[in-house]
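The material for today's practical consists of a large collection of protein records. Backbone structure tokens are a discrete shorthand for how the chain folds in space. An example says more than a description, so a record of this kind follows:
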Amino acid sequence: MMAACADDSGPEDETEAPAEETAEETQLKAGLASEPVSLDPHAANDGNSLYVMNTLYDTLVEQNTDLEIQPALAESLEQIEDTVWEAKLREDVTFHDGSPFNAEVVKANLDRVRDTEIGSPLGFLFDMIENVKVIDEYTVQIETAYPFSALPAHLAHPGGHMISLEAIEADNEAIANGEEPFSVVNENPIGTGYFKFEERAVSGEITVVKNEDYWGEQAGMDSIAFHFVPEDLTRIAELQTEDSDFIYPVNANNVEEVDNNDGTHVMQSDSASMTYLGFNVEREPFDDERVRQAIAMTLDKDEIINGVLNGVALPAKGPLAPTVFGYDENIEPIDRDVEEAQSLMEDAGYADGLEVTLMAYDTNTGDIAQVIQSQLNEIGIDVDIQMTETATYLEDTANGSVDMFLGSWGTVTLDADYGLYPMFHSDNAGAPGNRSFYANEEVDGLLEDARQEGDEAERLSLYADAQQMIVDEAPIVPIYHSVLLSGLRDEVNGYYQFPSSFPFFRDVTIEAE
């Protein structure tokens, strides 16, 4: 804009008034491993989707960087009865489309994510909710089927992101016209977050821009451009050439390269994740727990961690990381014993060995698969490694068309319910998390009882029993708890990564050169 303009009534001024200097817009260039499955928070539970969506949406309550639950869109969340929680909502919040945030919106979102006809893969997070009741414009009550002390942690999960009511209604109309659920919100995601969706390029790059009307603390950057680079070395090259300011993840074998490069470094953070070898227990030969146990006895976790991850990981005893409430250090893992493994294979009728396929989906899991392939040769198992893209991997493991697969699970809420119930309860077979199709009535009962138990010590006891049973029956083999590795340009400040693996971009700034 011009700082001044000429007065037509006076003599012409030969000198031009100087223009005001405007601050250069700042953009964070973020390189992720793959494109989001969806930008509808009720449609996707994969990391890359959540990394982008966390900039666009807010939850009623949220986890702060001290890993404590604090108010967000709800000014308060109080358990007023054993099975009733009351949320008092902020009155100063609008969605990116200008529509209001209120109790009706909360009800619409929690009803939608629980609607079995729509089929959200995150419905398990809220299946203890029986009713959502609007008390007044900014007060809502959530009624649960039983006392559930972990509800605030579940509401802080991205599955609790609040979508514009108008966007939900548009999606419902599209469904009525024969379109797939979640398609409208995915194409035009509308939340209340500190960034708002701007565009998705033909290349797949997604740009989000600062929400100037954000109800909370403003974002430090004007925009973020998320681009998607499956190859680890290409992501690192982009960081080194300044085509990216941030990349995730960094392969453990490349940490030294990034740290030794001028202008880049790796941030290491504790995680709540577990990487595992999974079996489809409904398919032969993995319907025989002796085969699964034999494989568990043959895996050398230290060789995997040291050989593939450069030692940057913690061997896993069970499915929960030490950062998670419910972790039991007394779990007895299946220790390596190749001789006993061979005996189990003989007992199961596979003295002459067998042939299986193992699905992996990126460089890291591919490298792990090669080590496992070599190790299982010791007991006569011939492993055919099947490399695929993330989207295909998620689809195939969800529909049960895979023998063995390498997977990971992050306990986002830092509560054992989320680390165990989705992965091992029979109701959650497939996409919700139980990709091994494991079904054990006793484990189901322990997990259900733990959900309903108000006494903390008793909850821990129930979870300990469930974990030991899961480890013993080996529907999966827990391999390691990862260290989160993010690559950053040195001029990037204010970045934080939650143990869930979610990047926190709100406070990020880039120091001027």
Summary: The CA atoms of residues 3 and 19 lie 5 Å apart. The first strand starts at residue 27 and ends at 32.
